Structures are given as C-alpha cells and as structure tokens.
C-alpha cells in the first residue's frame, strides 16, 4: 500500500507529504558499474543532474566514489574534487531538486553540505569513518542509513546470514540508537537495506520478498536496486538490458510501501511509480 511520506532534511525542510520520491543517480566517477565515465567533470555532471531533475527527480544523489563490489577506494581529495564542484554547479543553476551526497567520508560530507547538499547517503552506517557522526549531528541533514557487510572491496566474499532481514533490522536498531544519542532527529533518517552490498542473490531476493518487515522500525524505506547485478543472477541480463526488471521490481516495492527509489532512469521510474500509485 502506497501512503504519503514525509522526510525532514537539512534546515528543517520537510519533503512531502508525497506517495513517492525519486532520487536520480549522478555518478561523477570513471568506474561505476552502470554509467562510469559518462559524466566525468563538473560540466557534464551538472548537465546530467539538471536533465534528471527535468525528468522528475525530487533528489539528485551525487557520488564521486564507486561502491560497487570489489571497487577500489578513492582518496578524500579526489572525491572532494569530483563532487563539490558538481553540487555547487547544481545550486548555481537553481535546480528545484534536493541535492544528496553519496559518501561515507566525514570531510566529503561536511564540504558537500556546506556547498548546498541537504542529504547524506552513506553506505557504511558511519562505521568506516565514525567522525561522520559528528558531521551529521552538526548539520542535521537528511540521512540514508544503509546496511552493508563490510567495505566494497571485500563485502561480496562469502556473505552469510542466518536471517538476512532480521540481522539487518538489528543493525538498523543499533545504529539508530547511536544516531539518537548523538542528537540527529530520527525524522531525518530513512533506511536502505543495501541490495547487493554483501548479499548473495538469495539474500537480495529474501530482502525484497520480506521488505514489509522493515516497516516495524517506523521509518521510510529507501531502495536502490536500479540495474544491479541481481538481475543478471536471476534473469541472466547484462547491464544494458536490466531496465525492465528494474521497473517491475520498483513497482512491486512501491506497492509494498517503499516510498523512496534511487534510480538511473528517472523518467521511466516516474511513469512506473505513477501507475503504481493509481493502481495500488
């Protein structure tokens, strides 16, 4: 069932109420699995972000380090060089979309928030750099709390769970308690179970089948399954043929109460989610 959702972000701004939010992916990286190298600099990154906003993206998620499995880390200096100019460019262009920064690094998050970002999308649950917690407490941004099983370069090495959904829920409960003690209001937080981040195909499918269990935590869910490798594992699809699978799953997740969707193809997602809203 699709219900109207709100999300409070930096400055106390409230997104919504709305039945869904679309986060358009703005990769400023040479090695992201889907569009690495397509937007290698400030000019192309800004242009891509503005295009996604015109297609209907409510949020533009700007990332300067690939976190696909087995990816190599990027230095703080290089990540800053990639993302901050794009964020500033989007702000200067007057985009109506909210800007998010996809990072686990404390300084990158701090500089991005000062440059105009209002959300931090963190794959690490502030475990890789605990100093990120101080940045969150200071700026009070929207925050995507995501589950991953270790760092990207090693997370796919034999991931194991007894109950993947139950263990991710326990992770969220523990991290939420830390955020609460640090002073980040929990209406700033949304939860991403981390499809593909330290999970086998079976784990990913179990999460998607049982996604409604996460509603017990009382916070909005944020889903990133766009064109990911689970569609190769399930359907044998190469990366350039996963759009239909992505849209089908997006519709099903929306019908199961997931309101925030991080996607590459914003226009297709907007059509999919509009249909799901009308028929769910």
Radius of gyration: 17 Å
Q: Could you state the order of secondary-structure elements as H and E?
A: EEEHEHEHEHEHEHEHHEH
Helical segment count:
9
Percent of residues in helices: 25-40%
Gap between N and C termini, in Å?
A: 6 Å
- Largest beta-sheet details: 8 strands, parallel
Order of strands across the main sheet: 8-7-6-5-4-3-10-9
Give the amount of beta strand, in percent.
15-25%
Structural class by secondary-structure content? alpha/beta
Gross morphology? globular
Q: Please tally the β strands and state the result.
A: 10
Low-confidence stretches: none
The overall average pLDDT, rounded, is 93
Structure description:
The chain has 280 residues and is an alpha/beta fold. 39% of the residues lie in helices and 16% in strands. The chain has nine helices and ten strands. The chain has an eight-stranded parallel sheet with strand order 8-7-6-5-4-3-10-9, with helices on one face. Strands 1-2 form a two-stranded antiparallel ribbon. Strand 6, helix 4 and strand 7 form a beta-alpha-beta unit. The N and C termini lie close together (6 Å).
């Amino acid at each position: 069932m699709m219900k109207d959702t709100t999300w409070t972000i930096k400055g106390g701004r409230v997104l919504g109420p709305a039945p869904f939010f679309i986060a358009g992916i703005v990769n400023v990286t040479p090695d992201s699995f889907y569009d690495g190298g397509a937007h290698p600099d400030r000019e192309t990154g800004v242009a891509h972000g503005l295009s996604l906003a015109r297609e209907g993206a409510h949020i533009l998620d700007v990332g300067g380090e690939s976190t696909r499995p087995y990816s190599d880390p990027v230095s703080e200096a290089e990540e800053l060089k990639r993302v901050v100019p794009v964020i500033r460019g989007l702000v200067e262009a007057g985009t109506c979309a909210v800007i998010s920064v996809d990072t686990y690094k404390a300084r990158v998050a701090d500089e991005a928030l000062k440059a105009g970002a209002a959300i931090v999308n963190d794959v690490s649950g502030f475990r890789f750099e605990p100093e990120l917690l101080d940045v969150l407490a200071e700026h009070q941004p929207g925050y995507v709390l995501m589950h991953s099983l270790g760092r990207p370069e090693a997370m796919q090495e034999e991931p194991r769970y007894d109950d993947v959904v139950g263990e991710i829920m326990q992770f969220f409960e523990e991290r939420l308690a830390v955020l609460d003690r640090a002073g980040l209001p929990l209406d700033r937080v949304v939860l991403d179970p981390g499809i593909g981040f330290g999970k086998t195909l079976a784990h990913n499918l179990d999460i998607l089948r049982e996604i409604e269990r996460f509603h017990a935590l009382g916070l909005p869910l944020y889903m990133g399954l766009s064109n990911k490798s689970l569609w190769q594992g399930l359907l044998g699809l190469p990366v350039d043929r996963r759009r239909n699978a992505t849209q089908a799953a997006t519709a099903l997740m929306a019908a199961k109460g997931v309101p925030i969707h991080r996607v590459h193809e914003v226009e297709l997602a907007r059509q999919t989610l509009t249909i799901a809203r009308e028929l769910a």
